[in-house]
Each structure stands twice: as C-alpha cells, then as structure tokens.
Amino acid sequence: MKLEALTVTLRPRTSWEAAELGMALVRRHAGAIWKPWLLVTVPILVLLNAVGWALDLLWLSGLLMWWLKPWFDRIVLFVISRAVFGETPGTRQTVRAQFRWGARWWLPYLTWRRLGPARSLYLPVDLLEGGSGSEARQRRAALGAPVYGMCALLTLVCVHFEILLVIGTLLGAMMFIPFDYLPDTFKALLESFTEQPQWFNAMLNLLAWIAVSVIEPFYVGAGFGLYLNRRTDIEGWDIEIVFRRLRARLAAAAAPTFLALCLTFGWLADAQAQEPSAPDASAVQAPSSTQAPPAQASGDDEQGDEEEYEPTSAPIRGLVDGKKAKRLPSTLNEIYGEQRSDDRAMRDAVAKAMNDPTVAPKRKQMVWKPKHEAKKKKKDEPKPVDPSKFEGLGGGLAAVAKVLMWAVVAVIVGLLLFTLGRWLGWFRGGASEEEQAPPGVRTAVHSEPEPLPDNLPTAIRRLWQAGRHRDALALMYRAAVESMAKRADIVLVPGATEAQCLRASRKLGSAEDRDVFARAVRTWQYAAYAESLPEPQDFDDLVGQLSQRFGWAV
C-alpha cells in the first residue's frame, strides 16, 4: 500500500467529518461512479421488471432491486478505493470487475448481513483487506466498535432520504396538474394504492431505483471515509506518511552531499609525514632521578586527593549512609570511551521534526456553547446608594402619574356623556326610538338567456364569417354544453366551469361524443383565456363534428 500516493490529507477527524470526506470523494469522482452504476443497474432493473410484469409480480421485482443494494455498492467502493490512491479506474474496468471482485462475500452480504446497520463500514473491511474467518471478525470489531452507533445513524438518515425522494417526486409531479383536476387525481392515486395496477407498481419501482441511485453512492462513500479515519487512528497513517516523506527528502539530499564530500577530499593535498625527532637525554633521565619511593608517592596521592581532583564531565549525586553526598563524576567516559558521541544533534533533529506542522497540525475550531455555561466576568460589587437622593425624584414622578390618571378618567367620562343618547336606552329596557324598517327590496326579473337558434351550424358560421369570432365560439360552446347535458340527462349548476362540464361529460355513453365535446371545450378555453383562435378550417370541421354527434340541424 503506497500511503504517500494518497490524494487526501489524513488527520484525526470526528466521525461526521470522516463521513463528509467520503462523500467529497464521491462528488470528486462522480463520473467514474455513476457511469458504471447505470450500465450495471439499468439492465437488471429492466430485466426484473419485465419478468415481474409477465408474472404479475412487479412488487417482487422492486423488492429484489432493493435487496441487491450491497451487490451494487461494490461499484462505488471499487472506484473510490483506487481513486484515493490516484488510480481512478475506467468505466470498462469497473464493470468487468463486478463479475468477480469480492465474490466470496456475495452470499454473506445478501443474506444474514443484508440488514446490518454498519454495512457501509464492514463492506470495505471485508472486500479491501481480504481477511477470512476469525481474522475478519477481529478486524470488524476493532474498526467498527467505536463508530457502530454512527454507522447505524448514517444508515437511518440515508433510508429517510430515499423515502423522501420517492414521496417528493410524486408530490412534485402533482404540482403540474391543474387545480380543477386535483380532486380527481388524488382519487385516482388512492385507487392505485389500493388496487395496485401494473403501471403503478412499475412507476414505484422506477422511482425507488432513482432514489437509490442518488443516495446509495454517498452512503457507501461515507462508510469508506469512516474506514479511512479508523485506520488512521489505529495505525497512525498520518504519522507514517510524514516519516516516509521525510526519509525521501533526506535520501534525495544525501547523494549530492556525499558526492561533494568525496570531491572535496580528493582535491586536498597529501600531507607529508614528519620524521620524529630524537628524544632529549635530560628529558629521558629526569623521571628516573626524580621518582619518589612507592610508599611515599602513594602517601602524597592520598593526602592531596580531595584538593587536586576536579571533575571534567557531568557530575552525578550519590547517597552515603542515607544522606546526600557530594556530586560524583560521570562514568560514561569510562564505560564507552572513545565510542561515546554527543547526542545534541539528535535532540535538535527530533525537536525540529516535532515542530513540523505536518506532524502536529494545529487548527482553530469554534463551537457554540449555551449562555449559562459561558464564563462571566466578575464585577465589583456596587457601592450602596443613599436613598435620600431619590426622594424628590420619586415624589415628582408620582405627581405626574397621578395627573395622567385623572386626565384619562376625565376623557372617559366625557366620551360617555357625548354618547349618552346611544347607550342610555339600553338600560331603560329598549332603544329610545324604534328602528326604522329597512327600505323595500328592489326586485327585478332575471333575464333568461336567449334561446338557441334553430339552425345552429348556420348561425355559428355566419358569426364567424362576419368577424365576430369570439361570439361564434361562445355560441358553439353554449350549444355544446346544453346538448351534452340533455344527452347525459344531468343538470349543471349555474355558472359551471369548464372542468365541471368535462367531468359531467363522462356520463356520455359514446367515446366519440366525449372526445368531440372535450375538443369544443379546449377550443373555447384557448380563445377565452389565451386569446388563441383556431384556424378557419379547424373551426369549420369542429362545427361539423358537433352537428353530426349532437344532431344539430344543418
């Protein structure tokens, strides 16, 4: 595993940050994920629905597509597990890998592990690490135990998002239905839920597949992000990457330095050896003549030991008879001799490495805290105030408030006196004057609509040729409505709308009658509301069909 080839920055993250990292990987490699996803899932969706339609078991087709989600999850995992190391696979490579990659884990994840709440985390553990038996169980326990609750919550959230997408798509489609048709649409939708026709089940399967195709890649990506974060926490990937990069940098700089040292030593002039000079005779004889007897020399050494000894290395302390003794010289030189070296350079290198921002990154994080937990600054206690200073101010405010209150009372009394004639009669048992009778109601004869002409087609065409197109369409629409109501044996309410007339026309026995009446209503609506008149030939053809279907005189 080439950790230095990672395309993401590894650092200790919270569980939600790790999930967001995985979702960011899915967004970055969206094309490499959704292309093979569509190529693999669409044929399976079509095949299962075709078989379900033939066997009248479309609900089973949708259930099988939902149950195969772990098998489809391998597509996303195959792409991001390689793209995170800078090796994004192609569409053809990803599709080919789905027929053999992780084959020994198909049965567990399609049977007893299908409903596991931590499937998004356990899937990369099993498919990427390749463990088996007890080893795989230990790895799942080590990586999944601390974040099991987070994985379960992630699964619950993604399931809710899929359900909301299905419901939102259905409700969003209803936004394009005219308001007059909404009651009938809701009624038909409820009937579809109860009767479960084939087309309705096929539509639900399609909407469920769309919701899964949108949400499932992000679900798998979030689980892969949690997997990376757990490996980083346990195995210290971030620290290992820093040391690998440091080693590579030092190795790159070591070769030129060594070559420069070799060239430098090669250019130095050879040093000539100097002949040793003969020792002086007086210097040779001096020690023998001045040497003291052994006993005397030993005595002198013992006498001047404490005066002449000076430690030349770091002293240490010892204990003599339970008491602190004087500092003793270090014995490291006696143990290691010439092999001892100064470790100051090593300490400086370690301190420099620890100060590297990539080893110990620092970041500033702001969090919200409740107000009652915030630390309050201590304030000095206020000095006691002399109440006598406010006696005059309090008296003045009380006098002003008293005057305002009496003013309000005076205003209320004045209003009562001013309106005395209106409310005094209520207390005497009735009004002072009898209420005047309302003026007589004016009545007028409601003008009945003009009767339809005997020869409707001729009258309609005459208005159209005279340039009164709107009047011609109005007469045609009125005659069509009355003819429809008479043939369907219904009574329309006054001022019935076009939608109500169309719903009433469903009682017509002939489909041709319903179609020609609907065409007449649409033509009138286009002219009345959109100011779009039909072509003369289309209008004449429509009048001819209405005359034929409803028996208008020609």
Structure, explained:
The protein is mainly alpha-helical. It has 24 helices and two strands. Strands 1-2 form a two-stranded antiparallel ribbon. A hairpin with a 2-residue loop joins strand 1 (about 320) and strand 2 (about 325). The chain starts with 14 loop residues before the first helix and ends with a helix.
Helix and strand layout, with pairings?
Layout: H1 15-28, H2 30-55, H3 58-67, H4 69-83, H5 91-97, H6 106-110, H7 119-129, H8 134-144, H9 148-174, H10 182-195, H11 198-235, H12 237-267, H13 281-290, H14 294-303, H15 305-308, E1 319-320, E2 323-324, H16 332-336, H17 344-354, H18 391-418, H19 420-427, H20 456-465, H21 469-488, H22 498-504, H23 511-529, H24 536-550
Antiparallel strand pairs: 1-2
What are the main properties of this structure?
554 residues, single chain, flat
Indicate the proportion of strand residues: under 5%
Number of strands: 2
| Gap between N and C termini | 90 Å
* Low-pLDDT residue spans: 269-320, 430-435
In the sheet with the most strands, the strands line up as: 1-2
Which percent bin holds the helix content?
Answer: 55-70%
Query: Kindly state the mean pLDDT as a whole number?
Result: 77
Sum up the overall morphology in one term: flat
Rg from alpha-carbon coordinates: 50 Å
Order of helices and strands: HHHHHHHHHHHHHHHEEHHHHHHHHH
Number of helices: 24
Structural class: mainly alpha
Q: Strand count, sense and closure of the main sheet?
A: 2 strands, antiparallel
